[in-house]
Amino acid sequence: MSGFLSGKVVAITGSGGGIGRAVALAAAAEGARIVVADIGVSLDGGDPQSQVAEAVVAEIEAAGGEAVAVAESVTTLAGGEKIIGAGVEKWGRIDGVVAVAGILRERMLFNMAEDEWDAVIETHLKGHFTVFRAASAIMRKQEGGGSLVAFTSGAFAGSVAQANYASAKGGIVSLVRSAAAGLHRYGITANAVAPVARTRMSANVPMDLAEMGDPEDVAPLVVYLLSDKAKHVTGQVYTSVGPKIAVWNQPREVRAVYAEGRWTPEQIAARLDSTVGQERMPLLDQLEAYRKAAEEKAAAEKGTAEKGTAR
Ligand SMILES: NC(=O)c1ccc[n+]([C@@H]2O[C@H](COP(=O)([O-])OP(=O)(O)OC[C@H]3O[C@@H](n4cnc5c(N)ncnc54)[C@H](O)[C@@H]3O)[C@@H](O)[C@H]2O)c1
């Protein structure tokens, strides 16, 4: 422990388990006082149990740290205000917010129910807004500003059976960029982490992930983003998996073509492919590779089974 976050007050949503818990323990070990906010729900958001937040507070206290538990959902502004308010009430300020709370409701787009869409958008996207809004209102008036750390996912680039989750995670990236732009002048930074780590959530992913790590691998990047050493870092999206940290690009126009006057659909049909063209989705290539690998595996297994029968 190097006291990287000495004196800071940090609220961490979803810190009763998984990556949030690892972040809470690491930030507390670096001297931060922690609001552990979690309602202890199942992976799909049901069956809440307030004890998970209290259990993490007990772990932090046993290690000599300071923490307070809040069993409030991030899905309402009132909940967000209570989470941030708990830190302000106890320690007089709020220096950092890490929004880790999340759920999954996987379904193909054409089968997705309205409540599956709403619950995921509310927990992830609105769940970032509620705590960022409550915290930034205080941070902008306090000395030293503050740090907002969001949790997105590589799925923001697209997902086969998680249109709700991918949309929320894309929205979170835009929220972070907006917060970075709007709050810069108040000394508040906003960044997003796209993790991959062994938790109950990743156990649910239907395909093999090429890269994998543990929640404890993600925590140091979050601690850094919360610290005074990262005051110059804002508007960024970082992947964190095992030993790897990667930075994502900023969206930009890559090519342009101009009409003489206004375009007609016919002119676009004739000229678009050969001028601006498309930017191929890497995900489509990955899916194609998965499909080929699955076919080859099935063919190999069939061959082995036939050899076995012939014997
Ligand atoms: N694990 C991965 O590989 C992975 C990959 C990409 C993105 N992520 C993102 O990282 C974050 C953490 O994921 P995880 O794997 O630790 O998940 P997890 O399921 O282990 O933990 C999520 C926590 O959020 C809490 N929570 C859910 N809804 C809540 C609500 N309304 N209010 C308060 N707390 C609530 C849960 O009780 C749980 O403790 C999520 O935002 C997730 O989307 C994880």
Describe this structure in words.
- The chain is an alpha/beta fold and 311 residues long.
- The protein has 2 domains: 9-247, NAD(P)-binding Rossmann-like Domain (Rossmann fold, 3-Layer(aba) Sandwich); 253-311, no CATH class.
- It is built from 8 helices and 8 strands.
- The chain has an 8-stranded mixed β-sheet, sandwiched between helices.
- β2 (33-37), α2 (51-62) and β3 (67-70) form a beta-alpha-beta unit.
- The protein is globular and about 65 Å long.
- The structure holds nicotinamide-adenine-dinucleotide.
- Nicotinamide-adenine-dinucleotide (NAD) binds next to α1, α4 and β6.
Keywords:
14% strand, 2 domains, binds nicotinamide-adenine-dinucleotide, eight-stranded mixed β-sheet, Rossmann fold
